[in-house]
């Protein structure tokens, strides 16, 4: 949640992408946010960088597109598209479409106001976005988007539902350039021990398994990872609960983001309220907890807020952000034998509320947005050691949140 949203007790959250193509949606490649069709992008190191923002402060107008050169770190603004609170983005596999949440009501809107999902045509060579249409998210505060592995459906995680307190996820058919109204909305019941934060269900992200057969819905309010079978042939309904139905997470922790490694043997989870990273073994729709590490430094007494999590393109390092009073990026080494993590470094994000970040497809840069400081920092990254340089480049953007890389050619 935004720090203001926590104080106001209003749900306004989001998360960032998974490491696998199917885990994050059919439009992204493993761990990068890069278009899966951008096979030649790493050769010349030039990408389109899409940035989603919050627009309520008046400092931002929506989605921004930049041309980014990973060899030099040079960045040039190409275009922008006006839309309300596009705090999470996803790009189609063919790079021709961009979908954004319209996170409403947000901190200041009426509780009855529904969120939205907006569709845009995208021209990668020019970086131009063209609005197509918008539909209701069938809930409040949509926080995440995922494309089904076959590209037929777009899913969103609605953090809250005003008329029926508790979160949901909704499923939207994709037809040509358009996103159609939802054909399925799944509500969760439940709560957790933290009053004011876990009084109801709060679905924070929806992530497909690497093989595309399962969907995992991270529920911050209920401290559960719900699991569903995806059966697009309709033989068991479009989405149906698995036999186990869910994986319990430590009470009061608030699960937020889930990603998979490239081998589909391990999954990694951030929890928001106690700021931890957990390692799971993964097998055919089942998650088994193997390790949990606190993000907070020993003796740290301030507020925490676990947020985004991503693997490096080669899978050797994992990064996560901790907000609250910490405002840090943590670097972990991944043990190739069992997927376990070892903390290597913690570095200031140089601002407030590092909600999301991304690693460019070449692995040479980590880009983090400080939502409450209107700044984006480009940290040069050592692909061999995972280390982030201490002299990042700065870009000023109003309330930056989400980042996606796309090959322009």
TrEMBL record:
One cellular component term from this protein's GO annotations in UniProt: cytosol
Keyword Metal-binding recorded: no
GO biological process: glucose metabolic process
Keywords of this entry: Carbohydrate metabolism, Glucose metabolism, Signal
Pfam assignment, any one: Lactonase
One MF annotation (Gene Ontology) recorded for this entry: 6-phosphogluconolactonase activity
Signal peptide feature range: 1-23
Family membership noted in the UniProt record: Belongs to the cycloisomerase 2 family.
Protein name per its UniProtKB record: 3-carboxymuconate cyclase
Source organism of this protein record: Caballeronia sordidicola (Burkholderia sordidicola)
């Amino acid at each position: 949640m935004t720090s203001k949203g926590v104080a106001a007790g209003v749900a306004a959250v989001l998360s960032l992408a998974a490491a696998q193509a199917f885990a994050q949606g059919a439009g992204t490649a493993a761990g990068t946010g890069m278009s899966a069709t951008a096979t030649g992008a790493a050769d010349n190191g030039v990408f389109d960088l899409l940035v989603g923002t919050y627009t309520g402060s008046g400092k931002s107008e929506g989605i921004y597109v930049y041309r980014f050169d990973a060899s030099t770190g040079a960045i040039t603004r190409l275009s922008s598209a006006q839309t309300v609170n596009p705090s999470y983005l996803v790009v189609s596999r063919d790079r021709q479409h961009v979908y954004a949440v319209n996170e409403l009501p947000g901190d200041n809107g009426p509780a009855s106001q529904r969120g939205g999902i907006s569709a845009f045509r995208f021209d990668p060579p020019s970086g131009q976005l063209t609005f197509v249409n918008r539909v209701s998210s069938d809930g409040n505060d949509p926080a995440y988007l995922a494309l089904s592995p076959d590209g037929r459906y777009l899913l969103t995680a609605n953090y809250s539902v005003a008329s029926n307190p508790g979160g949901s996820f909704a499923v939207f058919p994709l037809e040509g350039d358009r996103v159609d109204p939802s054909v399925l909305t799944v509500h969760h019941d439940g709560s957790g021990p933290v009053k004011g934060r876990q009084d109801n269900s709060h679905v924070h992200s929806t992530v497909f398994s690497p093989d595309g057969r399962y969907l995992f819905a991270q529920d911050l309010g209920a401290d559960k990872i719900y699991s569903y079978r995806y059966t697009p042939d309709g033989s068991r309904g479009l989405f149906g609960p698995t036999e186990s139905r869910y994986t319990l997470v430590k009470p009061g922790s608030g699960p937020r983001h889930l990603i998979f490694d490239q081998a589909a043997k391990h999954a990694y989870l951030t929890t928001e309220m106690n700021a931890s990273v957990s390692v799971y073994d993964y097998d055919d729709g089942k998650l088994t907890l193997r390790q949990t590490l606190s993000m907070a430094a020993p003796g740290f007494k301030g507020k925490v807020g676990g947020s985004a999590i991503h693997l490096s393109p080669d899978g050797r390092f994992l990064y996560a952000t901790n907000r609250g009073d910490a405002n840090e990026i943590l670097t972990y080494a991944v043990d190739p034998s069992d997927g376990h993590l070892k903390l290597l470094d913690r570095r200031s994000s140089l601002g407030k509320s590092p909600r999301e970040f991304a690693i460019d497809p070449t692995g040479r840069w980590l880009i983090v947005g400080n939502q409450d400081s209107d700044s984006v920092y480009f940290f040069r990254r050592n692909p061999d050691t995972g280390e982030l340089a201490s002299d990042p480049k700065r870009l000023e953007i109003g309330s930056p949140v989400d980042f996606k890389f796309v090959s322009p050619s």
